[in-house]
Amino acid sequence: MKPRYIVGFFVVFLIAGILLTAGYQISYDHAMEKQSARAEEGFSDTESIAAEGEAVKNEESEEEGFWLCELQGFVVVYLSDRKTIYEFTEIPLTDLPEEVQQEVAEGRYVRTAEELYAFLENYSS
Has this prediction a pTM greater than 0.85? Predict the structure, then answer.
């Protein structure tokens, strides 16, 4: 190859690298601006979700209690707000006694985590 072509290829690669770096920096700055704007608006106090699908426990949720409800034929545990899912279970609603089925279908309130896990232990096997 001629030296002129080698220099041309080098310049093209250099310009492409500069453009990629500039694009990355612009997108990074944009993402950081969006994140800081969300933090200022108060969205930073969202609830974390653990790897197993359980909500991360905080002191308030332990004191407020839980709701046992039915979702797609299975028992699901919600936090006290009845909107945030605390834990999915593999307990079919049809495996529960008729009385308990009705309570869970309407929403059964459980005050403590100990009561919750006692219920789940009784009906999970």
Answer: no
Distance CA 123, CA 64 (A): 23
Q: Supply the DSSP string of 15-68, one letter for each residue.
A: HHHHHHHHHHHHHHHHHHHHHHHHHHHTGGGPPPB-TTSPBPP-HHHHHH-EEE
Per the CB < 8 A criterion, the answer to whether 111 and 65 are in contact is yes
Angstrom distances, CA of residue 96 to CA of 61, 73, 74, 78, 110: 26, 11, 10, 18, 16
User: pLDDT (tens digit, 9 = 90+) per residue, 40-80?
Assistant: 775 544 455 555 555 555 544 445 789 999 988 899 999 98
Q: pLDDT for 1-54, tens place per residue?
A: 678 888 888 999 999 999 999 999 998 888 888 887 777 775 544 455 555 555
Q: How far apart are CA 97 and CA 100, in angstroms?
A: 5
Report the DSSP beta bridge partners of residue 49: 55
Handedness of CA 68, 71, 76, 78 (dihedral sign): negative
- Closest among 101, 100, 72, 103 to 85, alpha carbons compared: 72
